[in-house]
Amino acid sequence: MSKLIEMLKLHEGVRSKVYICSAGYETLGVGRNVSESGLGLSDDEIDYLLANDIARVKEELSDSYFWFNAMNDARKDALIDICFNLGLTKLRGFINAITAMSREQFDIAADEFLDSRWAEQVGNRAIRVTEMIRTGEYQDV
Known about the structure:
By secondary structure, this protein is mostly helical. 61% of the residues lie in helices and 9% in strands. The chain contains eight helices and three strands; from the N terminus they run αβββααααααα. The protein is elongated and about 55 Å long. The model has no long low-confidence stretch (mean pLDDT 95).
């Protein structure tokens, strides 16, 4: 199997980002056709990618904010959700919300997140995650 993998990588190439192959299809990885007419990704592959992305975001937050790991799971997951959506760079722009979270002023943090263009753009998502920040409890999904 390792010889086959080596050969396919040589012939197909290895791409970490979507590209258009010579046949005109959106392709990813080692010749994986991810266009509408292609294989796309299986549920297991999607779950695998999501688990890796969550782990990466969790590590970024833990490395960036000393107080992150001291919060309960619902509040950590709310901040992970926001960071997953915005990215760490844009999350850092919420200075008042982040400062309030570091001081365990969760009502203020929730209000700061809600008073933003982001909250207007994502609607119910913002309401759900800010309620998790405010109460420290999971909301129905």
